[in-house]
Design goal:
Blueprint (H helix, E strand, L loop, with lengths): L38 H10 L6 E4 L11 H4 L6 E5 L10 E4 L2 H11 L17 H6 L10 E7 L9 E7 L5 E3 L7 H7 L5 H6 L30 H14 L1
């Protein structure tokens, strides 16, 4: 940081030495990418792992350690739920709630009987009539995706052939209309390809890839009862109940 008293415009450039200089480091009170977290993180993790009874992850790719390692440090008896725009494929969660976090949190609050007030909620509250009629809910029976999957030729002879297969959304994924779920996600989830192959393959080489922005849960699909009384809502409640027992 350099500070200086104002000098006349007539000063020559050679007079820079007349400026008073204070040197130091300016750093915001955050942890930068690649920087070690404070010791308090490890200490809190050791203490909390013996007391936590539910892990809820919201809006994270879970690709940066050590935060991404938290799931592995917890006892297997602790249920784990993720709320995300896109599926998490490299960790096994008990329940994945896929879509905009704002929509899902408001939906869960309504299902739990809590009134949540916020300007971004239709009507300003989960108890409003507007929210009752407009609130997003999980898609009832998300459609499968038909993907062309390369299979090697028999006996290693000849050209690989493309075989069409239906890829289903896993039962523990609850897909809201705002979610983005691609064929590549379902290839991994259905065990048709490994996570590494799915990440390394290019869009040009992947015959099963959906067009950009296309989603399993598109605007034309919705649950039967947006207010939260459909079979989909009941299944979501059962899945979360099983995970948290």
């Amino acid at each position: 940081v350099r500070t200086a008293d104002y000098q006349s415009d007539d000063d020559d450039d050679d007079d820079d030495d007349d400026y008073g200089t204070v040197r130091g480091i300016m750093k915001p009170d955050i942890t930068f990418f690649g920087e070690k977290l404070p010791d308090q993180f490890d200490e809190a993790l050791l203490q909390d792992r013996e007391q936590v009874n539910l892990l809820l992850v919201m809006g994270s790719s879970l690709k940066v350690a050590p935060v991404s390692d938290i799931m592995g440090h917890l006892p297997h008896t602790v249920p784990q739920i993720v709320i995300n725009k896109t599926p998490i494929l490299h960790f096994t969660f008990d329940v994945q709630l896929l879509g905009d976090a704002d929509d899902i949190v408001a939906y869960l609050a309504k299902r739990c009987g809590w009134e949540l007030q916020h300007e971004r909620i239709p009507g300003g509250s989960t108890a409003s009539v507007e929210f009752e009629s407009l609130a997003p809910a999980p898609v009832d029976r998300p459609p499968s995706i038909t993907a062309s999957i390369r299979q090697p030729a028999e006996n290693g002879m000849g050209e690989p052939k493309l075989v069409e297969q239906d890829l289903n959304v896993p039962a523990h994924w609850h897909v809201f209309p705002s979610a983005i779920v691609t064929a590549k996600d379902l290839l991994v989830a259905n065990g048709k390809t490994s996570m590494r192959l799915a990440v390394d393959s290019s869009d040009e080489d992947d015959e099963s890839e959906l067009s950009e922005g296309e989603s399993v849960a598109d605007d034309g699909l919705s649950s039967e009862d947006p207010a939260g009384g459909s079979d989909t809502s009941d299944r979501l409640a059962q899945d979360i109940g099983k995970a948290t027992v």
